[in-house]
Design brief:
This protein is α/β, with parallel strands linked by helices. It folds into 2 domains: about 170 residues, Rossmann fold; about 110 residues, Rossmann fold (3-Layer(aba) Sandwich). About 45% of the residues lie in helices and about 20% in strands. It contains 13 helices and 10 strands. A 6-stranded parallel beta sheet has the order 4-3-1-2-9-10, with helices on both faces. A 4-stranded parallel beta sheet has the order 6-5-7-8, with helices on both faces. Strand 3, helix 4 and strand 4 form a beta-alpha-beta unit. The longest helix is centred in the N-terminal third of the chain and has 19 residues. The N and C termini lie far apart (about 40 Å).
Length: about 290
């Protein structure tokens, strides 16, 4: 099986309460925007304690519109600076676009464990009863060859309705900044999937989208199962925990969260209440 699919593809990500385990170590969660906060939340449910560094490459946001060559160079450069400054035990690339485009290359350049996020197509295929699932992501993610290979491997026997929306990423960013979302806009984005009467499962194939799951559920014309990769990512990090704990001495449980941005921007202040709600005690700007 493709190594990238192993990051999230081996477990059914049905809603469940995580049973917290020990100290996560120092975990770097990396995204272009704030979508990876959904992964941070899943990690905090999985672990009793840990040092979490949430890094947003806001200087290059959004990744979904960038070329592969740009992303490979950019992600490597930013990760190298973050690893230099924060010395993590493990890195989670909490961005579907970056994971599907650059993760194999990035892994070859670093010795750390790097966990990626891929669309939760396998668990959705196991969960559906009707045989029709929706794939909701950025245009870049839903249209990539890699995603087609996942569908061929895990859902070839199913009907998969793809919806790519960059607008929904922007709406999630706005929601985290305290702005109300337009119900009719959300309905219009979801309509191509829900026009199919047999749809019973939707893959949230962008880490931004679980952050507005409540609004999506409200906008949806009927109840479906919403599937994302957060819980599986947290379990994957937990499975690597024995290696993480070997690096840190003392066995002291830490419980800190730092947010890092790649450029100073006025709207970071608007994000502060949301960051605090995710437990962020400090905001840094990455040194060049």
């Amino acid at each position: 099986m493709n190594k990238l699919a192993n990051d999230t593809g081996d477990e059914v990500c049905t809603p469940q309460e995580a049973v917290p385990v020990g100290d996560a170590g120092r975990v770097l969660i990396f995204d272009s925007g704030v979508g990876g906060l959904s992964i941070l939340s899943a990690l905090k449910r999985q672990f009793k304690a840990g040092e979490f560094i949430y890094a947003s490459d806001n200087a290059a946001f959004p990744y979904g519109t960038r070329s592969r060559s740009f992303l490979v160079a950019r992600v490597e450069a930013v990760l190298r600076a973050l690893i230099r400054d924060y010395d993590p035990d493990i890195v989670v690339v909490a961005c579907n676009t970056a994971s599907t485009v650059v993760l194999p290359t990035i892994r070859s350049h670093f010795t750390l464990d790097i966990v990626g996020v891929v669309p939760a197509i396998k668990p959705a295929a196991q969960l559906t009863r009707s045989g029709t699932i929706g794939l909701l992501g950025t245009p870049g993610t839903v249209n990539r060859d890699y995603t087609d290979r996942l569908i061929e491997e895990f859902a070839a026997h199913l009907r998969v309705i793809k919806v790519g929306s960059s607008e929904l990423v922007d709406l999630a960013e706005q929601a985290l900044r305290g702005q109300a979302l337009c119900h009719e806009t959300l309905k219009a984005i979801l309509a191509p999937m829900f026009d199919e009467p047999d749809l019973d499962t939707v893959v949230l194939a962008c880490t931004h989208f679980p952050l507005i799951r409540t609004q999506l559920e409200t906008a949806a014309p009927r109840k479906v199962a919403w599937v994302d990769s957060g819980a599986a990512i947290a379990r994957r990090v937990a499975s690597l925990r024995h290696r993480l704990e070997l690096k840190r001495d003392g066995g002291v449980e830490r419980n800190t969260t730092t947010a890092v941005f790649t450029q100073s921007a006025p709207d970071i202040q608007a994000l502060q209440p949301a960051l605090e709600s995710f437990g962020c005690q400090r905001i840094d700007v990455l040194a060049p």
